[in-house]
Every structure is written in structure tokens, then in C-alpha cells.
Design goal:
alpha+beta; Ribosomal Protein L4, Chain: A; 2 domains; four-stranded antiparallel beta sheet; 7 helices; 11 strands; about 20% strand; elongated
């Protein structure tokens, strides 16, 4: 399975062989829907919240005595059968809508979507997109050049989700250049960049181990390939770990810093990565 590769100006510069396991997968609508539903459901934050009889203010005193009045017995005016009382079986914000799917299912769904996009002629391979300056004008010029390729004239015709640019390595200038375009999204395929901390620097000096922040779905093989492509060294071992979310103070207010994933890249003796 071969396809054309273009440069940043829209000219063909060669061909690339695509893996059948990524771009030759049969369409599976049920799998894609299940993974998409799990992602949307996991993002859902419950807002609707009703108070039960114990949470409604007031109602601590018995409205009238138990016997002798001829009326029905009641213990609180906040009972669910009273107006202004608590709500029975109402929506609660403690409900967890998170739905999990396995890592293999997420990867298979991604390969299924990429294969379908490729069959429909919506995947374009560019050797590199590296802008020298973070200018929106340069970014628009690049997209204009790519829109001259047959089948990709729609780049500027869609208002939303027109283009998703997947970069193999982090490029701040390119990301800043495209961030003003609402219908273009720049994502990182694998490696996000080195994690520069005192502990990571000591590990690099003593054990020749480097720490990188990686994308959520990155595998050990893809991380090793990205390190080899970016820094021209081949890791002997890759270990992936999670970065937990933590509470931080921002301008005197409590906030939460999101977690992520990091990779420990082990290099053989003599190899080195310049992270600064």
C-alpha cells in the first residue's frame, strides 16, 4: 500500500509505504460508536442536583402532635409529599458517567477511522510542516498551497473541523501560527517534549535516562520511534508512567493541574540527548 508524499508547497516529493494494520482496516461502525460514546460520556460532568429531605433547610420541628388532631401524622414539613419538601429519586451530581474501554479497542477504533478517511481520500501525507515564524499569514499560505492538490480543495470550504494536522514532534512556532484558525487543529502524534525538572536532570546525568511528556495513547514503540526520529538515537528501553493531577494555587485561588503521561527513555552508554 503506497501513497504520494507532498512537501509544504504542495509538490509531490515521493512515495511512502503505509502499514496495512493502520490504513487497511475494515470499517467497524459498532466499535467506533462504542469508543466515541465512552469518550463523550467520560467528559460529561453532572450538573443537575436535587436535594433530599435531609438537605432542605428547615423542617426540624414536628408540624403537629402525633395523635388527637384528626389530621394525618407527619414528622417534618420537608417530607417529599409536602410542597417545598425534598425530592425523591431526583438527579444527583454524585453520579459517575465514566465509561471505560480497553486500550486495544481505542487503538483499533483509531485505525478504523484512519483507514476509512484514507479510503475516502481525506488523508494527506506531507514530509514536514515547519514554519519559521509563528505567523497566521504563513500558515494560511501553507494551506493555500496544499489546497491545490487534487481532492483537497475543501480545506477552506469547511467552517468547522476542516483540517487536523498531526505533527511527529512538538513545534511551538507551527502551533502558534495555526492557533488563530478556528477550523484547523494541530495535534501531536506521539512525543510532546522533554520533562525538565531537577530530578529528571539528575537521572539523565547519572543513569542516562531521559523523561518525556507523551500523548495519552502513545505506545512504547511509537515513543521509541519518535525519539529516534527527533534526536537520532535509538532507545534500549522505554517505560511509561502516569502523571497524577494535583491541586495548585493560581492567583490566590485553588485550582487543579491536569495530569498526563510521561515516558522514561533509557539510552545506551555514549548516547546523549540535548534537551536544553
Amino acid at each position: 500500500m503506497e501513497t504520494q508524499v507532498y512537501n509544504q508547497t504542495g509538490k509531490s516529493v515521493g512515495k511512502v509505504t503505509l502499514p496495512e494494520s493502520v490504513f487497511g482496516v475494515r470499517w467497524n461502525a459498532d466499535l467506533v460508536k462504542q469508543v466515541a460514546d465512552s469518550l463523550l460520556s467520560s467528559k460529561r460532568k453532572p450538573v443537575a442536583h436535587t436535594k433530599n429531605r435531609g438537605e432542605v433547610r428547615g423542617g426540624g420541628k414536628k408540624p403537629w402532635q402525633q395523635k388527637g388532631t384528626g389530621r394525618a401524622r407527619h414528622g417534618s414539613i420537608r417530607s417529599p409529599i409536602w410542597v417545598g419538601g425534598g425530592v425523591t429519586h431526583g438527579p444527583r451530581k454524585e453520579k459517575n458517567f465514566e465509561r471505560t474501554v480497553t486500550k486495544n479497542m481505542r487503538a483499533k477504533a483509531l485505525h478504523t477511522l484512519l483507514s476509512q478517511k484514507y479510503r475516502e481520500g481525506e488523508v494527506l501525507f506531507v514530509d514536514s510542516i515547519a514554519l519559521t515564524e509563528p505567523k497566521t499569514k504563513i500558515a494560511i499560505g501553507t494551506l493555500n498551497s496544499l489546497s491545490g492538490i487534487k481532492g483537497f480543495e475543501y480545506i477552506f470550504s469547511k467552517k468547522n473541523n476542516a483540517v487536523a494536522i498531526a505533527l511527529s514532534t512538538k513545534n511551538k512556532e507551527t502551533e502558534r501560527a495555526f492557533q488563530n484558525l478556528g477550523n484547523v487543529e494541530v495535534v501531536e502524534a506521539r512525543l510532546r517534549g522533554p520533562r525538565i525538572t531537577e530530578k529528571a536532570a539528575l537521572g539523565a546525568d547519572k543513569s542516562n535516562v531521559y523523561v518525556f511528556e507523551v500523548a495519552k495513547g502513545a505506545t512504547k514503540k511509537s515513543i521509541a520511534d519518535s525519539v529516534h526520529q527527533s534526536y537520532k538515537v535509538r532507545p534500549v528501553k522505554v517505560r511509561v508512567a502516569g502523571i497524577p493531577a494535583r491541586k495548585v494555587f493560581v492567583r490566590g485561588k485553588m485550582g487543579v493541574k491536569k495530569g498526563g503521561r510521561k515516558a522514561y527513555v533509557y539510552l545506551k552508554k555514549g548516547d546523549k540527548i540535548e534537551v536544553i
